[in-house]
Amino acid sequence: MKAINVGIIGVSGYTGLELVKMLLNHPRFILTYCANTEGETSLSNLHPALFGVCDLGVEKVDLDRAAQMCELIFLALPHKTAMNTAKGLLDRGVKIVDLSADYRLNRENYETFYCEHEDITNLEHAVYSIPELHGRIAEGARLVANPGCHVTATLMALAPFLNHIDTTQPIFVDSKTGVSGAGKSPTSGVHYVNVNDNINCYNIIKHRHAIEIEQHASLLCGNDVKVTFVPSLVPMTRGMLACVYATLKSDVQSDECMAKFYEGQPFVRVRTAPPHTKMTAGTNFADVYATRHGNALVAMCAIDNLMRGASSQAMVNANIMMGLDESLGIPVIAYVP
Predict the structure, then answer these.
(1) Is 232 helix (H, G, I), strand (E, B) or coil?
(2) Global pTM?
(3) What are phi and psi of 297, to 5 degrees?
(4) Does 42 share its domain with 75?
(5) Does 149 participate in catalysis according to the annotation?
(6) What is the pLDDT of residues 192-205, one digit of tens each?
(7) Which domain holds residue 84?
(8) Does residue 241 sit within a domain?
(9) For residue range 307-335, what is the model confidence (pLDDT) as tens digits?
(10) Angle of CA points 169, 171, 176, to nearest 5°
(11) How far apart are the C-alpha atoms of 1 and 10, rounded to whole Å?
(12) What is the DSSP string of 129-182?
C-alpha cells in the first residue's frame, strides 16, 4: 500500500512529541517533515526521550518546502499562528489537521473569545470531528479542526443524554486536568511549588472551552445548550476527568443509555464504576460512566488530555481523512502503574 508523507509544524511541545511517537509506528504515514519557528535542531535535541530512536532534523517553517514534502500536515501551533499557516498550506494543496482553536468555532464565537479571524473562507469549510459523535465526517476533508481537550471529555459524557435532559435547567461541568495541558513553557502557574499538593480552579465560567462546548452540544441536539463550566488544575502530569451534572426530563436508565449510545465504538469504554484518569493515560480511550439520583444525572468521562484531548484524536481524524481505518497507529495500552 502507498505510503503517505506527513509532517508536523509546531513539533516542540508535548502534543508534537505525542504525534511523533505515534507516527514512528504508523503503518501508512511516514514522518518526513518537522518544523518550528527556529529550526536548526533535531527531534532528539528537542525531546531527549527520542535520543537513539529518531534524530530527524527540525527545520524553520517553510511552507513551500512543507508542501513539496507532505500530503498532510498536523499543526500544533497557538491560535492565530495556526490559521495563517493553515491558509498558506491549504493554498498549496496540503491537507491539514489543526490542533489549535482557530477552526473550531463559528466566526462570531471565535472573534468574541479569541481574536479577529483572518481565514474566513477556510473557516467555513473546516470539519469539526469527534469521531464517535460525528462519524466519518472527516473523510475527504481538506481541513479538520481537532476539538479541545475539556470539550472532548465533556461532550463525550454529555452527548448520550442531550435528548433526555432538560436544557432549560442548569448544566454544570466540573473538569479536572493535569498540568501538561498548560503546555511546555514554564510559568508561575505550573511551577512545581504551586502545583504540588494543590488543586485550583481557573477561568471559572469564562474559560474559552465553555463556548466550544455550548456551540457543539447545541449542534448535536438542535437545541440551545448552555453550561456552567469550572475547570481545575490538579497535581498530575497528564489526564482529564470531566463530570457533568444535569436534570433529566425523561425516565431513562443512565447506564443503559450510555452503553447503547457508544455500542461498537472501539475507543470508548463504558465503565460500571467511575473511571480513573490513569486508566486512559497514553491512549485514545475515553472511559465513560453515568448514574442518576432521581432526575439528577451524573455523567463523566476520563481521557488523556494530551492524547484523546489532542494528539491521538488528531491521528484518528487524519486516518479517517485519508480513508484509512481509524485505529491505525493508535496506542491502546495505558501507562500503568
Answers:
(1) strand
(2) 0.96
(3) -95, 135
(4) yes
(5) yes
(6) 999 999 999 999 99
(7) 4-125
(8) yes
(9) 999 999 999 999 999 999 999 999 999 99
(10) 165
(11) 28
(12) --HHHHTTTTTT-SEEEPPPHHHHHHHHHHGGGTTTB-TTS--EEEEEE-GGGG
Q: Which of 34, 54, 70, 149 is catalytic?
A: 149
d(CA 263, CA 288): 12
Q: What pLDDT is attached to residue 183?
A: 87
The domain spanning residue 82 has which CATH number?
3.40.50.720
Domain end call among 110, 125, 140: 125
> Are both 174 and 267 inside the same structural domain?
yes
For residues 115 and 8, give the distance between their C-alpha atoms in angstroms, rounded to a whole number.
24
Query: For residue range 69-122, what is the model confidence (pLDDT) as tens digits?
Result: 999 999 999 999 999 999 999 999 999 999 999 999 999 999 999 999 999 999
Instruction: Inform me whether the pLDDT recorded for 182 exceeds 90.
Output: no
166/226 same-domain check = yes
**Measured between alpha carbons, how far is 257 from 87 in angstroms, rounded to an integer?**
41
CA dist 298 and 90 (Å) reads 42
Predicted local confidence at residue 308, as pLDDT: 98
- The answer, yes or no, to whether the previous bond of 27 is cis (omega within 30 of 0) is no
